[in-house]
Amino acid sequence: FFVCAMSNSSLFVSDHPLIAHKLTKLRNENTKPKQFRDLVHELAVLLAYEGTRECELTDLSVQTPVTQCTGKTFKNKIALVPILRAGLGMLEGTLQVIPFASVWHLGLYRNEETLEPVQYYNKMKPEQVCEAGTIFVLDPMLATGGSLVAAIKTLKDKGAKKVKVLAILGSPEGVKNVQEQFPDVEIYLAGLDEKLNEVGYIVPGLGDAGDRQYGTV
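^ thats the sequence. predicted structure below, dont judge the formating
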């Protein structure tokens, strides 16, 4: 289950024991890249489960081996936008839960001097974005919030109706940045940490999620 944090209805931080357990293993500096990737995958599955809770459904008639019955199916299209490269680690786990979702990649990196996001890959078309009922942006770390703000702005400019963020760790500063600019965007976190340090890293955090996934520390 998720609890609303910081008294804001658009922020949801997990209080589930399984997520807390996996997050602790993820933080450990001795966790090797293969296990780190597996944990990111597993946490993405759990976050996607909660993130889709409010998605709108419609009736669907199906034939069981016994009789006809009316079930439920998603009413609108769902899209996933992993922010390259770290967000790729969350993609397969999210697709495991939502295999029918469209996937659009967005390339952003953080300038280490200015801490501002720089976009280097974006093939999304406005007509595709407009068709999606809900778009999930995937990024393991919500640090300064700059990359997520840039991603959300890109989607909104292309006509996105509803955007949600799935992230593993967040900082209060990053959450505030996203919420101030996009108060309608829901944020789902596995954990909310204490603060950012002087170079924009989450404290206590888990280091650089991209480097730890791909062994480039």
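Residues 11-214 form a domain with the Rossmann fold fold (CATH 3.40.50.2020).
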